Amino acid sequence: MSEHSPSCLVSRLSRFVTLTDRECDFIAEMERDERPLTKGSLVVGAGDLTEGIVVLKSGWAVVTADIADGRSQILRIYLPGEIIGLAELGASEAHHRIAMQTDGTICPFPRKGLAPLIVDYPRLAALLIGIGSLDQIALRHHASSLGSMDAARKLKFFLLQLRSRLAVANVGLGNRFHVPFSQVEIGQAVGLTSIYVNKMLRSFVAAGEIEIERPYFRLLAREKWEEETDFVDAFVELDTSWFPPPDAVPATDAADDARVGA
Length: 262
Prior knowledge:
By secondary structure, the chain is of the alpha+beta class. The chain is built from nine helices and eleven strands. 31% of the residues are buried.
């Protein structure tokens, strides 16, 4: 049996299926080219050619856009074990800037290396597609919260969703989790000013609904918040009923075997 160093991507995927050694070997290949980056380092610049995907082996990263008035908006947060660049696979260049929010390690993987994933590891490919669909659902819920909720509920929904996403990769301890963002940056993620974020967080603390020990937050009224925001955890369950078996024979190999048998 193969042995593998701890991998947040393996941990994240193993939440939904038990990976085979072959699948773990492929993930290890995806993570072979490790590059440490410091906080603020650019992962991908807007307008850069997209040459493949990037496994975020450790650390956090953010997708940002500049608004006309000079402010920045955080469009997406990438967590340890997530894959950067899947949304850009159909584009020749990146449309937004992606930078490290914390120190961490990235593992670039060329686009051409994805062909064997689809051909030789169909279940693993299906798993990445399935989890990617859950990410898109979560992003839709986040966008809906920005357009339909008041300031307090926007912030509560943001923290609830961050906690649920961290739980997928087994990062964090229950309702206590790392939030490596300033109040300005939290505001950029939820469309609020830093002054309003500060006001809301202080009110949550005063109400006994949250504890803050920077950079850690602990949700003390999680069920109450989930009810107030109609929170839907997109990552509770993944439909794997359509996945091919882990030992599925690639179509080309099956055809070759059929010819040999004839």
